[in-house]
Design brief:
24 helices, EC 3.1.3.16, about 1300 residues, Leu-rich_rpt_typical-subtyp, globular, membrane, alpha/beta, nucleus, seven-stranded antiparallel beta sheet
């Protein structure tokens, strides 16, 4: 198999590419020869290839490990220039200096000493390690070298000379050198580097992550070096600066050689007798030499992440060794040599293969106090004798397979971690026990004797406890108790009245009542959510005066207790969560006493109003959630809450906009799904307002002045007024609709995004996805912009679900480019489609995901999980895979301390531990399928599958349901970004979406508003832009709302009622399509042919703008058009450039005229400042993207101007010049032609053209690139608009 590889010269010297034909077996030396050049591999770090290594085979192996399975596809990906961000090869001379970044050198004017006795002279000067080196002869290093130690010294600017620095060593015998630099750049670089050295307290040289093969020779002049860090390099043994020369450092105490791919233990390090710390982790070591016994001063030895299975006996002679790291190796038992290492107090053996352990083994090692055996696959740990283990104080047994645990013989145990096992019983000694962590097991009882009077923290959450043991109430010092997600039916009264308990978490149980408090208690946090409580103790608030956090959401409360028995209240409550109860407006009066309240969530109750006088008393309130009630107004006294920054009141009956825009700190206002009709605004808005959500207010009309005031808001969400008639909307709607919601929580930025396309491809298909970047917003945004395009392309190459979904994820991973090297995101993609083998059959749902995003299908009211959570805690096979690849898993179960996910898009620097290959699953849909829920980790951590399904069933409307899911998760304690998407499904028995024709005798409502009639010139027009349900526009500060006028208004004209009554067409489906002929719709049929391969999705970051109105009207002088936001300024609309380019290229043109039109459209795209970068643009990695069907839109997104608060989207509008309007002079001719064609299919005559359409634009030279491909039918032709989604960065 022949493959052409592109091996480039060193980018620092030449940019000439040399193409070499080779096959997978060809090694390096045959490609570039033995002497002149060598090949380097860039895999997030750079290393030289051995002469016997085979570059092409390495490339294929890398792609196969990512997840590519087809050999042909592997070859295609190997030739893709975008792959250079992940792996690439380049060639440079053998003698090229690899150490340029590790030192500074040059020939400068130098003077020694502070007196004028010495003269200035040109000398070679080198700054390397901790010393300044000055040669005695110009341009020569053969003479005497003057060494100036800089640690603890000084570097100062000499003001009398330009670009001059004074270097001084420390101590009483300090020496001084003056160096005069030629340029300001040299001066600044030397000053910056020397300042770092002189500020050190120890002689430390950090050369980590430099891709070094050897230590710079100049570094050996720094004989004062005591700490040398060489981690993440490719150090070799041989050579002038190889590891064999490290003993030349006579004072070296600490040496870090981790992650160097050594393969063998460097015995030369055993000759550095001064070493006290040696780190050789992650070097593929299999054995430790006996020479290790020479390091008698060694105190710390790290051998984690290797392949060790035994240790030499000589290691036991290191009497000063007190820390030995053996985690993530291949030990099947505890090495016996540890018995002799009396100074070692911690056994670090996590991630090994210790399947069983007898406690007597630990008893013989009397010096071990801390035992770490997590992730070992332990099946049993027992004591076969009565011997006690008295020295162990801390024991970590997390993530094993223990089903029972008896540690009563470990009499001095202070801390025990045994989470995520299979424990049914647990027996411990309570003499010295201080902390117990035993969550995520199957515990029904916990036996501790004697009573643990020293116990302060206990976590027994997610078990099967039906009652709490009596000894829990007798603990005198317990401060935190977590028993959430158990089967508890009551809490002991003595526990609640404990004089030490400060935090009690008892949510998600079966509690029906909470006993009264007898005396004042120090309780500060109480969580009782998801129980069956009908009331709270009457004395709760005035007996628990320190209570600051209370969560009683999801109960059956009808009232809350008073804050005080008298008018004076001493309450210190700051956070109160009452969501999901049966509270009414009377509870408002009981909240007045909590004057320190900062957060109040009282959503989804039965509030008809909120007392105005009571709300004004909550002056410290910062966050208020009143969603899901029956409020008609929010009291004007809310203006008294001067610290309020978040008001969420969606899903009510509010008709008047609240007086909150005068608040100085208001940031977020959510009034969606209400009944607002108008907004009364002050003259100016607070600069702090960042997000305003007004969607779902169907009667809301905004004036131009209002929109101008909203121009600075980061994210403004409004309903896009639909221009389709009621009948047309139903006829064009697919058998599903959707909406989504997202909340940023306590984060300053939103790191989640959504992809939602109700009309995907050229048939009845849909595509939905969510992306969660955890703490980064870049990767989710890039995936949102491109993943739909990638899926569309992959569908053209394969019809096998596992193939096209896997390739979609892998290609998206590659397209992340430089952004995906250090950052990553969880991703979930759902594709609704017909099976390729049966296009007219049932619908199927294909789901693919990486990370922790999840999808749940509701079928017959029951949740059906469709995704797989790829986290180390929940996926055993992934944990084993990561362990076998010798990754270091930290105590919080994160790969290298970075992410808990084993599969992500991005984070390519963690390969092969973290992979982009997704889980793929296809499920046929049926009429019992009601809806689909998509959510990120934060949502489903707080809301169970069953509760999510019940929530959506109770609401039905997708927008309100998605809003409710996010509000519930936040009220249940979630502080992270939350994302929820709900897709409502309407699948018939045979996947048919037709409906019976409407009888003409049925009563009809008022006639729909007429729209301009648009006539298509022929079937070769661009495909119709499809619409989605719940159309939303989002505006941000980068473009004022006043700029969303001219082109939006230019698509409409003066409308007059049509003389022909519009009959409601019957809805048709893909199984029973209406007959069409030459693009003319048959009577009773609706819709038009779509372009093959076209789909609509979220807009990209590319922007088209127009500075002048195209309709020649000034909207300030004209009456606003209904459903159009216009002010005559300019329009800046974010559109899908990739989608447009793909549309122009998909399919063969049907005529030379069409081909010419397409060429002109492509030329226009090339001229656009926003799209020219897509055509032959040179990327940041040095490669050039050729014009092809799929463009890397990510490069545009990465290189777009940075915006302080993100970008926004507005609906793509038709340009007035792109509409094909029939001039009055040609009306009759068109009528006759259409009538003649209609006779062939017994069609009624074409309806009359409204006389208002009088602009003669028939001969416009450009086809409507973004216009709807609509044909005249038995009613006004609909203008379909694309749904637009976006969020603020």
């Amino acid at each position: 198999m022949t493959q052409r590889t592109d091996i480039m010269h060193n980018p620092n010297s030449l940019h000439i590419a040399q193409l070499t034909y080779c096959t997978t077996p060809i090694p390096t030396y045959l490609i570039c020869g033995w002497h002149c050049y060598t090949i380097f591999l860039f895999l997030l770090s750079c290393r030289r290839l051995d002469p016997s290594e085979r570059p092409l085979q390495m490339l294929y192996d890398y792609l196969a490990a990512m997840g590519y399975t087809e050999p042909i596809r592997v070859q295609q990906e190997a030739a893709n220039s975008d792959l250079s961000c992940l792996i690439r090869f380049y060639k440079r001379p053998v003698n090229a200096d690899q150490q340029e970044r590790t030192l500074l050198k040059g020939v400068f004017s130098v003077r020694k000493g502070k007196t004028q006795l010495h003269k200035w002279a040109e000398r070679q000067v080198i700054l390397c390690g901790t010393c300044l080196i000055v040669a005695s002869v110009k341009d020569s290093l053969t003479g005497k070298m003057h060494i100036l130690p800089l640690v603890g010294g000084k570097v100062e600017e000499v003001k009398r000379r330009q670009h001059c620095l004074m270097f001084s060593s420390a101590g009483s015998q300090a020496q001084t050198y003056f160096v005069n630099f030629d340029t300001l750049a040299d001066y600044q670089r030397w000053h910056r580097q020397a300042s770092k050295v002189v500020s050190q307290t120890v002689s430390l040289v950090d050369l980590s992550c430099y891709s070094l093969e050897a230590v710079p020779e100049y570094l050996f002049y720094s004989q004062d070096v005591t700490h040398l860090n060489l981690r993440h390099n490719f150090m070799s043994l041989q050579g002038p600066g190889g590891l064999l020369n490290l003993p030349r450092f006579s004072q070296l105490k600490s040496l870090n050689l981790s992650h160097n791919r050594l393969g063998v233990f460097p015995e030369c390090t055993c000759e550095i007798l001064t070493l006290t710390e040696l780190n050789l982790s992650c070097n593929n070591l299999h054995t430790v030499p006996v020479q290790i016994g020479n390091l008698q001063s060694l105190q710390t030895l790290s051998l984690d992440g290797n392949h060790l299975s035994s240790l030499p006996e000589e290691l036991g002679g290191l009497s000063q060794l007190n820390s030995l790291g053996l985690s993530f190796n291949n030990f099947s038992h505890i090495p016996a040599v540890l018995e002799r290492l009396s100074a070692v107090d911690k056994l670090a053996m996590a991630g090994n293969r210790v399947k069983s352990l007898e406690l007597c083994t630990l008893a013989r090692m009397s010096h071990l106090k801390n035992i770490d055996l997590r992730l070992n696959g332990l099946h049993w740990l027992k004591s076969v004798s009565l011997e006690t283990v008295s020295q162990v104080t801390q024991l970590d047994l997390r993530d094993n397979y223990l089903d029972s645990l008896d540690l009563s013989s470990v009499c001095n145990l202070e801390t025990l971690h045994c989470q995520r096992n299979q424990l049914g019983t647990l027996t411990l000694s309570g003499f010295t026990l201080r902390m117990l962590h035993a969550s995520s097991n199957r515990l029904t009882t916990v036996n501790i004797y004697p009573v643990p009077n020293q116990l302060t923290h206990m976590d027994l959450s997610q078990n099967l406890l039906e009652y709490l043991p009596d000894w829990v109430c007798d603990c005198r010092k317990i401060e935190m108790l977590d028993v959430m997600h158990n089967l508890l039916s009551e809490l002991p009264s003595r526990l609640l009245n404990s004089l030490s308990l400060r935090k009690l978490l008892a949510g998600n149980n079966r509690l029906q009542r909470v006993s009264d408090l007898l005396d004042h208690i120090p309780l500060e946090a109480l969580d009782l959510q998801h129980n069956r409580l009908a009331e709270l103790p009457e004395s709760l608030f005035y007996k628990a005066l320190n209570l600051k956090y209370l969560n009683v959401s999801a109960n059956a409360l009808e009232s809350i207790p008073p804050s005080s028995p008298s008018e004076e209240s001493l309450s210190t409550l700051q956070e109160l969560y009452l969501t999901g109860n049966n509270l009414n407006e009377n509870c408002g009066a009981l909240l007045v006493g909590h004057q320190n309240l900062r957060v109040l969530h009282i959503a989804y109750n039965q509030l008809l109003s909120f007392p105005a006088s009571k709300l004004s008393k909550l002056e410290l309130l910062e966050e208020l959630n009143l969603s899901g009630n029956k409020l008609k107004t929010i009291p004007s006294t809310v203006s008294s809450c001067k610290r309020l920054h978040t008001l969420i009141a969606h899903s009510n009956h509010i008709t008047v906009f609240p007086e909150i825009l005068n608040l100085p700190e208001i940031k977020l206002v959510d009034l969606s799904c209400n009944e607002l009709t108008e907004i009364q605004l002050p003259d100016s808005l607070p600069a702090t307002l960042q997000e305003l959500d007004l969607t779902g207010n169907n009667s809301l009309m905004l004036e131009h002045k209002t929109l101008n005031l909203f121009s600075h808001i980061t994210t403004l969400k409004l309903d896009q007024k639909s221009t389709t008639t009621a009948g047309d909307s139903q006829s064009a709607s697919p058998p599903w609709n959707h909406s989504y919601s997202e909340m940023s929580g306590q984060r300053n930025k939103l790191c989640v995004s959504v992809l939602a396309v109700d009309r995907f491809g050229d048939g009845v298909e849909a595509c939905y996805g969510i992306f969660d970047g955890d703490r980064n917003e870049e990767v989710p945004r890039l995936l949102q912009c491109t993943m739909g395009d990638v899926l569309c392309e992959e569908l053209q190459h394969s019809s096998i679900d596992n193939v096209y979904m896997c390739n979609t994820f892998l290609t998206s991973h590659r397209k992340l480019g430089m952004a995906g090297q250090k950052l990553g995101a969880s991703a979930l993609l759902c594709y609704i489609h017909h099976e390729p083998s049966d296009p007219g059959g049932y619908f199927s749902l294909t789901v693919a995901n990486v990370g922790t995003c999840q999808a749940v299908l509701c079928r017959d009211g029951r949740p059906i999980p469709l995704s797989k959570v790829y986290s180390l805690e929940s996926c055993t096979e992934e944990m084993e895979r990561v362990k076998l690849s010798k990754a270091i898993i930290t105590e919080d179960n994160k790969v290298s301390g970075v992410t808990c996910c084993s599969r992500l898009l991005g984070c390519s620097y963690l390969s092969p531990w973290v992979l982009p290959k997704p889980w793929v699953h296809t499920k046929p849909l049926c009429s019992q399928d009601e809806f689909l829920i998509l959510g990120n980790r934060a949502l489903f951590e707080r809301v169970s599958y069953q509760e999510a399904v019940c929530t959506v069933q109770a609401v039905r409307d997708p927008r309100a349901a998605a809003k409710k899911l996010c509000s519930l998760a936040q009220s249940y304690g979630c502080k992270d970004n939350i994302e929820a998407a709900v897709v409502s499904l309407h699948i018939a028995e045979d996947s048919c979406t037709c409906e019976p024709p409407v009888s003409t005798t049925e009563p009809r409502g008022p006639p729909p508003a007429p729209v301009p009639v648009t006539v298509t010139p022929g079937p070769s027009d661009p495909a119709t832009l499809s619409s989605s349900s719940g159309i939303v526009s989002e505006f941000n500060s980068e473009t004022s709302a006043s700029e969303v006028g001219s082109e939006a208004g230019s698509t409409a004209s003066d409308e007059h009622p049509s003389s022909v009554p519009a009959s409601r067409p019957e809805r048709r489906c893909s199984l029973h399509p209406a007959t069409t002929l030459c693009g003319i719709m048959v009577p009773g049929s609706v819709g038009a042919g779509t372009h093959p391969g076209l789909f609509q999705r979220q807009p990209s970051c590319a922007t088209f703008s127009s500075n002048h109105s195209d309709n020649g009207l000034d909207s300030d002088d004209e009456a606003p058009l209904e459903g159009v936001i216009s002010n005559g300024s300019k329009l800046e609309v974010e559109v899908d450039i990739h989608c447009c380019a793909f549309q122009l290229r998909s399919g063969a043109p049907e005529s030379p005229k069409d081909l010419d039109l397409e060429k002109r459209e492509i030329a226009d795209l090339k001229k656009s400042p926003s799209t020219c970068s897509l055509f032959g643009k040179k990327l940041s990695n040095g490669s050039v993207v050729a014009p092809e069907d799929s463009h890397n839109l990510i490069e545009v997104a990465l290189e777009a101007p940075k915006k302080k608060s993100g970008y926004f989207t507005a609906p793509a509008q038709q340009d007035p010049e792109d509409q094909l309007i029939v001039p009055p002079s040609l009306e009759q001719e068109v009528r006759e032609q259409l009538r003649g064609q209609s006779l062939l299919v017994s069609a009624p005559p074409l309806p009359s053209i409204p006389p208002s359409l009088k602009d003669p634009v028939w001969d416009h030279p450009h086809p409507p690139a973004f216009a709807s491909n609509l044909v005249p039918g038995p009613g006004p032709a609909p203008i379909l608009q694309q749904e637009v989604y976006d969020t603020a960065l």
